[in-house]
Amino acid sequence: MKKLANIKSPVPSDIDVSQSLKLWSIRRIAQSIGIQDNELELHGDSRGRIKLDVLERLKNKPNGKYVLVTGINPTPFGEGKTTTSVGLSQSIGAHLNKKVFTCLRCPSRGPTFGIKGGAAGGGYSQVIPMETFNLDVPDIDAVAIANNLLSAAIDTRMFHERTQTNKGLFKRLCPADKKGERFFTKAMISRLTKLGIYKTNPNDLTKEEIADFVRLDLDPDTISWRRVVDVNDRFLRGITVGNGPKERGQIRSTGFDIAVASECMVILALSNSLHDMRERMGKIVVGMSKKGVPITAEDIGAAGAMTVLMKESLKPSLMQTLERTPVLVHAGPFANIAHGNSSIIADKIALKLVGEDGYVVTEAGFGADCGAEKFFNIKCRSSGLVPNCSVIVATARALKHHGGASLKECKETNVGALKRGVVNLVKHVENMKKFGVPVVVALNRFHTDTDEECDVILNAAKRAGAFDAVISDHFSKGGLGAVNLAKSVERACKQKSNFKFLYDLDQPIKKKIGIIAREIYGADGVDYLNNTNEKIEEYEKNGFGNLPICVAKTQYSFSHDAKLLGRPSGFRIPVQDIRASVGAGFVFPILGAISTMPGLPTRPAYYNVDVDEKGNILGLF
Amino acid sequence: MKKLANIKSPVPSDIDVSQSLKLWSIRRIAQSIGIQDNELELHGDSRGRIKLDVLERLKNKPNGKYVLVTGINPTPFGEGKTTTSVGLSQSIGAHLNKKVFTCLRCPSRGPTFGIKGGAAGGGYSQVIPMETFNLDVPDIDAVAIANNLLSAAIDTRMFHERTQTNKGLFKRLCPADKKGERFFTKAMISRLTKLGIYKTNPNDLTKEEIADFVRLDLDPDTISWRRVVDVNDRFLRGITVGNGPKERGQIRSTGFDIAVASECMVILALSNSLHDMRERMGKIVVGMSKKGVPITAEDIGAAGAMTVLMKESLKPSLMQTLERTPVLVHAGPFANIAHGNSSIIADKIALKLVGEDGYVVTEAGFGADCGAEKFFNIKCRSSGLVPNCSVIVATARALKHHGGASLKECKETNVGALKRGVVNLVKHVENMKKFGVPVVVALNRFHTDTDEECDVILNAAKRAGAFDAVISDHFSKGGLGAVNLAKSVERACKQKSNFKFLYDLDQPIKKKIGIIAREIYGADGVDYLNNTNEKIEEYEKNGFGNLPICVAKTQYSFSHDAKLLGRPSGFRIPVQDIRASVGAGFVFPILGAISTMPGLPTRPAYYNVDVDEKGNILGLF
């Protein structure tokens, strides 16, 4: 850890700040947090991977304090959750001299080259180097290829089933080896078990058993598995595949999602071990057979290979902040159709490494109605970890917008709008308390915010039951600007955590959705539209009823409607569609049109990106 | 370097051999060949990247000997070029105690999980660990995302041009910055220069100039740039994009290629520096404007970002053989529509590192009619390097097939078929001599080959003018089995190289194609079918006439027809289509249906791939 020297005002551009400091070697960062040399794999000069062996070595060591950073419902500008996570960590590490880890998600290159730019924090609270953080994201490449191997396997399997007899399929699926013997692979044994066939010698199967075994009989209209790419390619949202002459007319409508929307990414984020990941891969449901049986990646025979393709990615990547505190970058699932949280494995490793007196700061995407609710009910349920404190990041800008100011107006002083809009923050504070976790509100202050405005926010937060509410100025000052926040978090973590889930898994799907809708969103109830009633019945019949719920909805409102700002009431949420990510392990009701593939603007960020004569990267932000 | 101990007979499976040895640390490998610590970037425990700085440090050092490994026209089994490259290197390094480097291509995961399996060599001549070699191939991921960023940019640009006025486009392409000023990016200046507009202030453009500047006016029917994925996904060969409702009916037929078929991969392989790569990226032609002007990646504004996405991949990856000689794995372009050679940068680094008394063994794909011809005429032309020796790998099996034995029969002794088929080897030897490079024939011996069969091959090769022809048994014995081959190569490299290109670049396209057809393939002439005459005229008009030629054809025959085995004569080659990879820097005539996207068999290799309880990878081969 090393405090920042020479802080400039006004704050230079993010890339100028990022490139102004000399990196510590990753080995030095690792040593500073107690990672042994044999537990560190270097990947270039500015990133390392931590081997999972560290969990075995430290299994009897107590965990550190577990701090979630979440936020109010944001504006399209973003309200600085990542920047706050980094600033808070810099403060805990370099200013309070406690052990600390920041756990962040891998950024997709889609937004980096599209509209949003990078995701490494900002100002004097950044992960460095930003080039590595934003561009060197092998977890996403691994997810994409595992996802797409399964896609290729699905269409090709349908093709082979369509063009071959049972006998031909069986002969090819279980060919004789060099010694003339046939055998079933692990995936085949799983499929046979699912069919109630407990034979291990291919020669013993009856004609009927062979037919059941070789024909997955996928109904093309039910296939929900889509291909992915880590680029904002809107023209792949809806495509037709199989137009080539050799595919003999097997044409199908499907599409691509951005890679971070892949269920494989969720699996990476929610797995507790390699074994756990392998099991989840096998459970992925790609569609239904014509008889209505869910067909899995295990049935297809691809789950083992998918796991192998993602095996290296299970090791979180070690990086550093501007004040040389350690960061783990790992996974990066979408925050709507997925749970939008950084990985369980990174958090677990970090908690052991910081130890009893240390802190792990982990971030959840979107507002607390999505990110934090899913953190508690999905991620903590899968990990068994208990959070000690929740930090809600708020900005005066966004709260003014919630109080009726337009996006342009809300940069100006407007105490009236702020007083109306602060109810958004109040509701989030109340929500966090339902999980039994102390809440600290971090007001991410902009230099234009007046003292009066700040007081409105801090007072409202405290009245709503926040353990504390403080101004944080980490963007301009780094860890130094977040010392008050860090001290509040420290005190909050000394409170007894009464952490509890909002719902039990064994309740029916609709009951669970209803609890989230009423308790978290403040809705009057839930309407099930289209064929969602039938789908829920089908999921419960197929044994998916006991999964947690991951609501896919807008981040801009507590409700399903981005325009319902503040603390809306008197609304019902419409479940337009519902889907299941069985491998990831949740059911996701969809409350409106959710884009799983962003587009590019007329002037995308890539226009600025280039290399200079010396090979330096230009134009990232 | 370390000789193998405990060689077993029969040879265990590739993965068992690969996993039976303890790796040397990559740092130790690097040190053994003179790479300094600050020139090495570790990437995990078994791979490192070499920084291009090493070229600057060693720029005044003489190059080592440059040895190309190529082959006869193979059977579908493959005849062991990679295994021979590795075995020869193990022998030079661990048995002759000379400095040596092996330069290989990155393997695509398509074939690894499809039919072919891995590509790390075999038996006792392998690159280890094979898991890393076959699965950890970030160069391909970088190529794929750079390629696909351009694809997304093309369709989205057409969309924005279709839906916006000139004024709207210009306002968005050159928005005012925070200070209210507008500026052109580097890519925009390039486009303006192409249009003959030499203004640097956006405010100075006339209405007409704005129209020319903002409208690329791509003709959708001319777009040749396809998307890529590193999976054998045949259902992506022909697709329709833009079916989503928000794309407003902008539908187009296109398709995906396997990632290694991307022009970005060729650029990676043929670039001499980062600057060179940036220039080539900008020159990529994606299609034609409606007025017939080639539209480039520079026009689209994506070439800088594509370069940034591939910047790290420009550093070759260091690995090791079973006898701990150093290997560079880098790039991996397709061997038909591209030139199928490992990278220039890897070869250059290796040649400097081994120095005057050392050897660099580099491999070219397909038979010598494709791989070696393109190595000499395309790769050596781009690099300026001069080869010292060419090794042609031959097997009795393949030569029997060339003599009329079926693929099944050719495993059995058949001197008659061999005597007929050996003409294939003879023609390849004669061809190599046309380039003025001494040829050593390496008979990759199988244990079933009789002495008589071996003699037929060796004698024919010598009579044809090979500098030497020797039996090599590196599969069963590692470097020890290739000592005779290594000694022959050593002697051949002491010969004076009279290297020359087969054609001059300033000859017309048809003249160059004709020279290759007659001299290398033994054809009587060339027929230009479909609209290839017009396309050639157009290319020459657009200034692409002085590029070298990269013929896309079958690897199984000297001709365009896979069934014309041996040394065919009395045939003419049909140019069915012709295309230009202007960024890569060649024109490629297509002699028949060339698949740029392989399929998966009914029982793909992925079925066997899994992890065991301890996390080891199973089922790779």
UniProtKB/TrEMBL annotation, chains A, B:
It holds the Pfam family FTHFS. GO terms for biological process: one-carbon metabolic process. Pathway: One-carbon metabolism; tetrahydrofolate interconversion. One of its GO terms (molecular function) is ATP binding. PROSITE patterns: FTHFS_1, FTHFS_2. Its EC number is 6.3.4.3. This is formate--tetrahydrofolate ligase. It comes from Anaeramoeba flamelloides.
